[in-house]
Design a protein that fits this description.
alpha+beta, Outer membrane efflux proteins (OEP), three-stranded mixed sheet, 7 strands, about 15% strand, elongated, disordered N terminus
Length: about 475
């Protein structure tokens, strides 16, 4: 029987084609719903902005922070208050009478008090500092929101990529299982024909069982990855855009690491948050120091009373007043001095934290820049490795036909081929992630950056998540 060479050639061809058959392609169309149509990276990002609870919470946090402008300004604007009092006076009034006697009379009358009062601050150093602090707090909330938005974008990108990587892992695990099933058939036929050994059959079955276990694990990971993506985009995607088959690393603009560092130092949202934190702490020093300084207010009031006192119980009066009010602190038991010292130490702490943030951002820029540069080189190396693994598998298949190689050699070569293809997919995704993370460090991770990455590296084919 000369069926064995034909079967072996079939197994070899199956191993070489398994990775390319690891995705089911479909033409991309503008989807109206992620459940019924494909989901590109750009569409996933926009859906996240609408549906992700964490991002929506960040929006509410930002809007709450903007009210600090009005809160800080309120202390410098006129303060107007009105009071309305109604009292019922009852009692006994003893007054001296003729001949040194005391004459008593019953009291039973209403007392009414109406007052409106307006105060305008002319000088109050603490309130001036509170106004400036309110502006800084509002700017701080904007910087924090930008950080939250960047984190949301990177979280979405990571989950989108994890779905792609999990799918690729499932696809390769299924191909590996199918190939091992074929190897069992080949080994069994060779054994039945007296050309093989029972060891080869058992080894092939062992690899088949391990491949089945790997497939179950990969399918579980895909289910979890898809559910994590659904949490952010609002619905379970059935199809997402796959990496382009002709994937090629793009040109990095700007090209030098120094330019990226300059951009990050100028625009990074975490650094801006730290700068606003220093501003807030600096104004806190001024606010507490205002406890040492006098305050000056303009006060105007109108007061209408009836029966305000016992002596004027039968009289009505109205008065208008306008003047200035000066308050001069003299001694507060050392409280103000302690508060000023505390505020200064907090300002020093905020300054040191800002310096640490700058260093951390510089490290992150360096890490992501190197990941982009080395990632392109690693992709090129892995492409060569995949081709070499495929050639090695073909050579081992031919050696197996000639009797110089064992089935274990074939199985090992298949494992190496599948792993190299998975590593290549992972390296490509890590390269795109590094580019987007680098843009995030420089605060340029916006719709334009995500759309550009989506168009350059993904589609138009899609994987079907079944």
């Amino acid at each position: 029987m000369r069926v064995l060479p034909t079967v072996a050639r079939f197994v070899c061809a199956l191993a070489l084609a398994s990775a390319s058959l690891g995705v089911q392609a479909a033409k991309a169309a503008p989807p109206a719903n992620t459940e019924s149509s494909g989901l590109t990276l750009s569409q996933a990002w926009r859906a996240t902005l609408q549906n992700d609870p964490t991002y929506q919470a960040a929006i509410s946090e930002r809007e709450a922070g903007q009210t600090n402008r009005a809160i800080g300004r309120a202390g410098l604007l006129p303060q107007v208050s009105a009071s309305l009092g109604r009292n019922k006076i009852r009692g006994t009034l003893d007054e001296p009478g003729p001949g040194g006697n005391t004459v008593g009379s019953d009291l039973n009358y209403p007392s009414r008090t109406n007052e409106i009062r307006a105060t305008q601050t002319v000088f109050n150093w603490s309130r001036i500092a509170e106004y400036r602090q309110g502006q800084a707090r509002a700017d701080y909330s904007l910087a924090v929101f930008d950080t939250r938005a960047k984190d949301t974008s990177l979280r979405l990108i990571n989950r989108y990529f994890q779905v792609l990587l999990s799918y690729e892992n499932v696809s390769l695990a299924q191909s590996k299982l199918d190939a091992n099933e074929k190897q069992i058939t080949v080994a069994q036929r060779r054994y039945d024909g007296g050309e093989g050994t029972v060891t080869d059959v058992h080894e092939a079955k062992s690899r088949r069982d391990l491949a089945r276990a790997d497939l179950i694990k990969a399918e579980d990971a895909l289910v979890v990855a898809r559910r994590e993506l659904q949490e952010m985009v609002g619905s379970a995607p059935l199809r997402i855009s796959m990496l382009k088959r002709d994937f090629k690393p793009g040109v990095l603009i700007p090209a030098t690491q120094e330019d990226w560092l300059v951009a990050a130092m100028a625009g990074n949202s975490e650094i801006r948050s730290g700068q606003e934190g220093v501003r807030i702490s600096d104004q806190e020093v001024d606010r507490t120091f205002g406890g040492h300084l006098p305050t000056l207010d303009i006060v105007a009031a109108r007061r209408v009373v009836s029966g305000e006192t016992i002596s004027t119980r039968d009289q009505d009066s109205s008065t208008n007043s306008f003047g200035i009010q000066v308050a001069l602190p003299i001694f507060s038991g050392g409280l103000t001095s302690a508060q000023v010292g505390q505020a200064r130490h907090n300002r020093d702490r905020a300054s040191q934290e800002l310096a640490a943030t700058r260093e951390r951002v510089a490290v992150e820029v360096t890490r992501q820049y190197q990941a982009v540069v080395s990632g392109a080189q690693r992709i090129s190396a892995l492409v060569t490795a995949v081709e070499s693994s495929a050639e090695a598998l073909r050579a081992i298949e031919m050696g197996y036909q000639a009797g110089t190689r064992s089935i274990v050699d074939i199985l090992d070569a298949q494992d190496l081929l599948y792993q190299s293809r998975l590593d290549l997919t992972q390296a490509r995704l890590q390269y795109v992630l590094a580019r987007l993370s680098l843009a995030g460090a420089a605060s340029t991770l916006d719709a334009r950056a995500i759309d550009s990455a989506s168009d350059a590296y993904f589609g138009p084919e899609q994987v079907i998540l079944r």
